[in-house]
Design brief:
It contains ten helices and ten strands. A hairpin with a 2-residue loop joins strand 9 and strand 10. The longest helix has 16 residues. It is α/β, with parallel strands linked by helices. It binds adenosine-5'-diphosphate (ADP) and magnesium ion. Magnesium ion binds next to helix 1.
Length: 250
Amino acid sequence: MIAIEQLVKRYGSFVAVDGIDLEAAAGEIHGFLGPNGAGKTTTIRMVAGLLKPTAGRIVVNGHDLADRPEDAKASLGFIPDRPFIYEKLTAGEFLRFHAGLYGFDGNGVGDRVRDMLGLFELTEWEEELVESFSHGMKQRLVMSAAFLHRPQAVLVDEPMVGLDPRGAKLIKRVFRRMADHGVAILMSTHTLEVAQEMCDRISIIAKGRIIARGTVDELRQLAGSQDEHLTPVFLKLTGGSALQEIDEVV
Ligand SMILES: Nc1ncnc2c1ncn2[C@@H]1O[C@H](COP(=O)(O)OP(=O)(O)O)[C@@H](O)[C@H]1O
Ligand SMILES: [Mg+2]
């Protein structure tokens, strides 16, 4: 699980994240939906332990990130929005290197690497250099690394950006399967359709604050909307302003 309490991040006088409470439970895909600049990446980087919060508390799988950062990070997988992969490695080398970073070596690593390559449909590319990979393949490789050490919680920042439809479908399937195995997934997106299709619950963020939360049905009820699609619901909840920004980038 991932639990965030009263999380704040200030840059000088600018408040990027303004007192967020959020929980992604074991087995849940929790959507973190909001327009560009809302504070999603800033929040996710704080949970990943890459950025120090100005205030607030983060607990990952029972470990307080401030008190037990190693335990918290060891139980977490992180898929950044702009991942860096050293391109002179093969897919297999990259995964084994990643396993080593998490202290996961020795028995069972080879099997686990092969399982992950299979799950993300990269098996035939194991011995190929990453530099020859398409964007979608690199994205799938980064995801397979994030799940490699059997994390109980996974953070994903904008997983669908730039993906081809086949890759998107695969990722939806894998995320659901991981959640069914008890992994908590916190996934940011600026796209309503992605949140609506993939997430069990959605927290809507605008200007650093959570403005609504619930299942798609609950959000609909909250906005008093019968609409099948979430767009008018979102429009109503945000007073229209945030949606416009969303539409511009979609
Ligand atoms: N290092 C930084 N210094 C100052 N402002 C920042 C910094 N990083 C992000 N911001 C600002 O914080 C806000 C939230 O950014 P971000 O978390 O990246 O939003 P999102 O991921 O939702 O698009 C934006 O206005 C952004 O410009
Ligand atoms: Mg972002």
